[in-house]
Design goal:
By secondary structure, the protein is α/β, with parallel strands linked by helices. It has 10 helices and 16 strands. The protein folds into 2 domains: 202 residues, Rossmann fold; 119 residues, 3-Layer(aba) Sandwich (Rossmann fold). The two termini are 40 Å apart. The chain binds aspartic acid.
């Protein structure tokens, strides 16, 4: 069988950190790959690897313009959507915002035809007892498999990118998809659950536009809705186009007296703001037909984000606002990349 090739895209984070300053890309991609192959020699046994390093940042400083650049690299350098090219692409990314990047790419790369695997590590590759070596090798192996999704390989699991959330700041099992079983388990082999892996249903398309005018708010007892109105009405050319309310439980917010969020939400939706209700619980779903508060929110014009992670809801809202061929409500009633149970 012909050897497969994998494109590694190094974007920064702990995995590639050296001492003392890790923000600079002090190695050329060719040297960087060489170092990586020295530290993880099995990469060269698994596949023919090439490496590009478009930037080297802590992932707190990575955002929509980087995600767009990444999506273009997956297409233009990785060959996604075209015959040939690399069998798969591995994105090495800081773990802090990795789930946001993976979610954004899942929406941008429509009908993806090959694996785009995000990975990173909690300890640098060059540190002893690092998780980087195992994560990298598993990510490259997963990138050679029949897995046409944006996925995360981390610890002992393969996870759907647009369902994932970082659940631990230091544990080696840093990611989870609380509302979805893993796509695969990593042990002696990588066992993928073929029944849940998505397949393209049409032609590949790069849909990279994003609109950043999205605001997220976590509700808590005592939250003053006047603050929300203040932000929404602040003017100065700033306009909130989508508001994600992280509500209690199954989609509840205060609806009585001065703490009621309803007037603010009514006002915002009347002004054309897409108000999305997500749950702040790790598991479960915002269901706006279950309780009086949910029904009142729906009557005020709010839309349920169902069981989406906040990472997926925020990036999907950015994506939906930039694709006005459907309304945000219609996009949120559509399962784009396996991000929601409908
Ligand atoms: N602060 C780092 C980052 O997200 C953490 C990591 O990579 O684990 O870039």
């Amino acid at each position: 069988m012909a050897r497969k090739s994998v494109l590694l895209i190094h974007t920064g984070g702990t995995l590639g950190m050296g001492q003392p300053e890790h923000r600079r890309l002090d190695l050329e991609p060719a040297e960087h790959l060489q170092r990586m192959l020295e530290r993880v020699p099995e990469l060269g046994e698994i596949a023919d690897c090439d490496l590009i390093a478009p930037w080297n940042l802590d992932s707190s400083d990575v955002g929509p313009s980087h995600w767009q650049q990444l999506a273009r690299a997956v297409v233009e350098q990785g060959g996604a959507g075209q015959p040939g090219g690399y069998a798969g692409i591995v994105v090495i990314h800081g773990t802090d915002t990795l789930a946001y990047a993976a979610s954004a790419l899942a929406f941008m790369l429509r009908n993806l035809d090959r694996p785009v695997i995000f990975t990173g590590s909690q300890r640098p590759l060059q540190a002893w007892r690092s998780d980087a070596r195992a994560n990298l090798a598993a990510a490259v192996e997963a990138a050679t498999m029949d897995l046409p999704e944006v996925a995360i390989v981390f610890g002992d699991r393969v996870l759907r990118g647009c369902r994932a959330t970082k659940v631990d700041a230091s544990d080696y099992l840093a990611f989870d998809t609380p509302n979805l079983a893993p796509l695969g388990r990593i042990g002696v082999g990588i066992d993928l659950d073929r029944a849940v892996i998505r397949r393209p249903v049409g032609l590949f398309a790069l849909a990279e536009e994003l609109d950043r005018q999205v605001l997220g708010v976590t509700v808590f007892p005592g939250f003053d809705p006047a603050l929300l109105v203040g932000v929404a009405d602040s003017g100065a050319g700033l306009r909130v186009k989508a508001l994600i309310v992280r509500a209690f439980g199954a989609g509840n917010v205060p609806i009585v007296g001065e703490h009621s969020l309803l007037p603010a939400i009514e006002r915002m939706s009347a002004r054309g703001v897409a108000v999305l209700i997500a749950t702040q619980c790790l598991r479960g779903s915002a269901q706006l037909d279950l309780y009086a508060a949910g029904r009142a929110l729906r009557d005020a014009g709010a839309i349920s984000a169902g069981d989406m992670s906040f990472e997926a809801a925020a990036t999907k809202a950015m994506w939906a606002l930039a694709h006005p061929e459907r309304s945000v409500a219609e996009w949120f009633a559509t399962n784009l990349a396996g991000e929601v149970s409908l």
